[in-house]
Design brief:
The structure is a homodimer. Chain A is mainly alpha-helical and about 210 residues long. Chain A contains nine helices and no strands. Chain A has a domain of about 150 residues: Tetracycline Repressor, domain 2, CATH 1.10.357. Helix content of chain A is about 70%, strand content about 0%. In chain A, α1 packs across α2, α6 crosses α7 and α7 crosses α8. The interface between A and B is medium-sized, with 35 and 34 residues.
């Protein structure tokens, strides 16, 4: 890594943390200058304008998500095992207070940007489509290997799972419900239980949840 | 209604529409002046500062919700009928392009404000708690009258339903999925189906969905 790149990466890591708390629209070159100890003009040299900064933040957040959630899960066996890994990784990702002190940037950005067309919204939209498609793909493979029933709709499975994650984020971050972790775990287990083929219906679901 | 009050109500109706698109933090006295044709100083006379305006917007949005969703539903029989009415009213509320051109203010405000303590966040939080409690209460009554099974957890039922609504809002508003209405209807029907007592399991669920 060249020095310029590594400095930029450090700035962006800080920017991701700020955006996690203040939202992607709440990020400013001024706030970032305060948090990194760099001058505004130094930051302008890296990003030129706020739009570029916002887009680079979302790109880094997206890379972080893929690296933490999907890549390790896709190393697991096709089928339920991979779905469980995906869910566990997702929970770790959302609860990593170091990287995301204020919760998922994608979730807040989605609700912030829904009525504001532009490059940033398009990027967030595409990332969200990829997310749903990746979960649906994993559910299709689980049908293929006989873990999930043939009449399961993989897209519906993915969208219900993501709805629970949105609810979880809301109950935990906005409402500060202490039982949010057990809410999402139980909802997830019921969703998986319902997706299974008849002969696997009653096998225990073992989640390793770190948090 | 005195003239002052009715003018204020009209301003607030406009403000609710603006906040629906730009978010509760995106509302400014300037934008409101532009939309209502009033002077900024005229608006200051009504609200004094932006904080008051934001809080009054959320209060009006909350009243609208209760009047559209809960009050007519609570006139229905206790039990599944009331739950169905609540859901149908909720869908009409969310899809009323006249009042909420940009979707639910509460949903976007929840994600905007989760990391920003203050009176506004507290109000939104309380409204969300009331919402979940009202659905859970309706589910408890459905257990009481024998429509729903005794081992159903009403709070869980309410939180799963609200998660689906959050997902619905996201898929429809952010991702522009044309099948979002059928997504939420099917998710809701499965949730109700799963909540029912064994002898009512296979009765058809008839939804009147206006939109």
């Amino acid at each position: 890594m060249s020095k310029g790149k590594s400095t930029k990466k450090q700035i962006l890591d800080t920017a991701v943390r700020i955006a996690s708390t203040f939202g992607i629209q709440g990020i400013t070159i001024g706030k970032l200058a305060g948090a990194t100890g760099m001058s505004k003009s130094g930051l302008f040299a890296h990003f030129e304008k706020k739009d570029n900064l916002q887009l680079e933040i979302m790109k880094l957040a997206s890379e972080n998500f893929v690296e933490t959630v999907f890549i390790p899960a896709f190393k697991k066996q096709k089928g339920e095992e991979r779905i469980l890994a995906m869910f566990e990784n997702w929970m770790s990702y959302l609860n990593d207070g170091q990287t995301l002190p204020g919760g998922s940037i994608f979730i807040s950005a989605s609700f912030e940007l829904d009525d504001r067309p532009g490059e940033l919204r398009s990027f967030v939209q595409k990332s969200q489509e990829d997310l749903i498609r990746n979960i649906a793909k994993a559910a299709s493979l689980a049908i293929e290997v006989g873990d999930f029933r043939k009449d399961l709709n993989p897209d519906e499975f993915a969208k219900r799972l993501y709805s629970y994650v949105l609810g979880y984020h809301h109950y935990k971050r906005m409402l500060n419900h202490p039982d949010s972790d057990s809410f999402i775990r139980k909802a997830f287990c019921d969703l998986v239980g319902d997706a299974r083929t008849e002969n696997k219906k009653h096998k225990e679901i073992k989640l390793k949840v770190a948090n």
